[in-house]
Amino acid sequence: MKEQLEAIRKCALESIGAAQDTAALEGGRVGCRGGGGERSGMLKRVGEVSPEERPAMGQLANAVRADLEQALEQRGRELDAQALEQRLKDEALDITIPGKRVKLGRRHPMYIALDEIKEIFISMGFTVLDGPEVELAEYNFDKLNAPEGHPSRDWSDTFYFDSDSRVMLRSQTSPMQVRAMETMELPIRIIAPGRVYRKDEVDATHSPMFHQVEGMVIDKGVTMADLKGTLNTVVEMLYGKGTKTRFRPHHFPFTEPSCEMDVQCHKCGGVGCPTCKGEGWIELLGAGMIHPKVLQMSGIDPEVYSGWAFGIGLERTAMRRFKIADLRLIFENDVRFLEQF
Ligand code: PHE
Questions:
Q1: Ligand 1 neighbours by CB, cut-off 6 Å
Q2: What is the CA(38)–ligand 1 centre distance, in A?
Q3: Which atom of ligand 1 is nearest the CA belonging to 171?
Q4: Same domain for 279 and 132?
Q5: 90, 124, 140 — which closes off a domain?
């Protein structure tokens, strides 16, 4: 009996000591004394010995059990400590290694110019609208007083989607005038920036896709003086106080009278240089008083309301603002160019 208990103790202590992880420790428990095995057997056998021997055997059995509990606990602690040590080693961070610099992007020069324009108009109480680039010819032409047969509707200038020329890539942001008139309450003060498309070959000043910002005001008693006053203020905010402008008569089907606005050349101050092609002035935008027929087609009474509109080329504005010589730089996304802003 005694030998058996000692044998159990020896076996169990050995397997506990040899256990390399907690699973093996559990295994040792089961192997020598665990559930239904040696341990309960051990106590059962104490009951089998003679009454004289029983107290001593009971004591021994308890001592063996206590030894094993202690050994288990101790080995458990050792293994836990080892495991922790290993994890600390595996997951060690070298906080002395220099970090990776996060490369921040930059705003594109054209969007810097757009943000400036938006800010100016928002400060004057204008709302910024967004509209479809795939547009109905009805909105791009008809409702802007350019009926069938108008030269601007020609297939050689316009990207149509269908053979009956109904759906197209908008060639100007002006259809947003119509969309605003049809959906907004009067009075209206909006700008509408976005992409426009024309069948142009790419060169230093042309691209089949470019950006415009449309602007429009409709209210009672609005005149050409409001148009000039507002646009002069905008130009001074964009290009500095005292920047001179001039308005030349022009033609657009949806404005009457129509004009183009030039700004005095920032390079030569109006004397004439390569930048302004010797003119002294640089063309900036088209504008005019909204044609009464256009107001009427969108359900606004031209006897009560009047308005003005303008369309400005965004690439050109950015090129002038940042003295960029070639339009293609705006679209090529060469980081050496973009990093300069
Ligand atoms: N849509 C005209 C263009 O693309 C510009 C313009 C807009 C002119 C509004 C007058 C009024 O050339």
A1: 172, 174, 252, 255, 286-288, 309-311
A2: 98
A3: 4
A4: yes
A5: 90
User: How confident is the model at residue 40, as a pLDDT?
Assistant: 57
User: How far does the centroid of ligand 1 lie from the alpha carbon of residue 326, in Å?
Assistant: 23
Residue 22 near residue 79 (C-beta atoms within 8 A): yes
Give yes or no for a contact between 287 and 268, defined as CB atoms under 8 angstroms apart.
no
| More confident of the two residues 177 and 56 | 177
Q: Which amino acid makes up residue 71?
A: A
Place of tokens 């103790």: 9
Token pair for 225: 């003086």
Taking a C-beta distance cutoff of 8 angstroms, is the pair 262, 271 a contact?
no
The minimum-distance atom of ligand 1 relative to the CA of 196 is 4
Q: Whose CA is nearest to atom 5 of ligand 1?
A: 311
Q: Tell me whether residue 114 is in a domain.
A: yes
Residue 254: domain span: 109-338
Give residue-wise pLDDT tens across range 272-291: 988 788 999 989 999 999 99
Three-class DSSP labels, 233-270: HHHHHHHCCCCCEEEEEEEECCEEEEEEEEEECCCCCC
Is pLDDT above 90 for 146?
yes
**pLDDT score for 36:** 42
Total-model pTM? 0.72
Q: Give the integer Cα–Cα distance in Å for 96 and 117.
A: 47
**Residue 65 backbone phi and psi in degrees, to 5:** -60, -45
Amino acid at 212: Q
Distance between terminal CA atoms of the chain? 92
Q: Which of 174, 230, 256, 294 has most ligand 1 atoms within 8 Å of its beta carbon, as the pocket-test mutant? A: 174
Enter the tokens of residue 34: 């665990």
- The first and second tokens of residue 215, run together, are 């602007």
Pick the more confident residue, 8 or 181: 181
Sign of CA dihedral 172, 178, 184, 187: positive
What is the number of domains present in the chain? 2
User: Is 231 inside any structural domain?
Assistant: yes
